[in-house]
Write a structure and sequence with these properties.
single chain; alpha+beta; 2 domains; 22% strand; 147 residues; 52% helix
């Protein structure tokens, strides 16, 4: 029995050492889940504020967590959801604040080559790039014409 005791002691020490990181990992997961809920609550509050700022009857672009994008006018605002008349679907669509990833005022009237609406922000970026593509060559050529 004296020979088995040191081996048992070593195995027990390894088991306890291996269990410590698992315990810490479990605590870290709980902490991360709590932070995730706080981040979700924060984003939900931001979306609620954005919906209130845009207001009923005004145009909005809504991007969901799953990547879908909707364009329409806000019709009804409630505590846990809001309704939008989607212009492409021509029907009323209900959104929960928790499923909305991003929201912008207005919606792009122009469409890309696939027939999808261009979000207002991307439309503005495209216009700025197009304007720069026209002005930069003119500003480069103009000084050469003075000579």
């Amino acid at each position: 029995m004296a020979n088995g005791s040191p081996l048992l002691f070593v195995l027990l020490a390894f088991a306890l050492a291996a269990a410590q990181p698992l315990k810490a990992l479990g605590q870290a997961r709980q902490s991360t889940e709590t932070q995730g809920n706080v981040a979700t609550d924060s984003r939900t509050e931001k979306i609620k504020a954005k919906v209130a700022k845009i207001g009923p009857g005004h145009e909005a672009t809504i991007k969901l967590n799953n990547g879908d994008t909707y364009h329409g006018s806000i019709q009804n605002v409630e505590d846990d959801n809001f309704k939008v008349y989607e212009v492409d679907l021509k029907q009323l669509v209900e959104f929960k604040y928790t499923e909305v990833k991003k929201m912008e005022s207005g919606y792009g009237h122009s469409r890309d080559i696939y027939g999808r609406r261009i979000p207002p922000r991307k439309h503005q970026i495209g216009l700025a790039i197009g304007l720069a593509a026209i002005l930069v060559p003119i500003l480069i050529i103009l000084p050469g014409l003075k000579d």
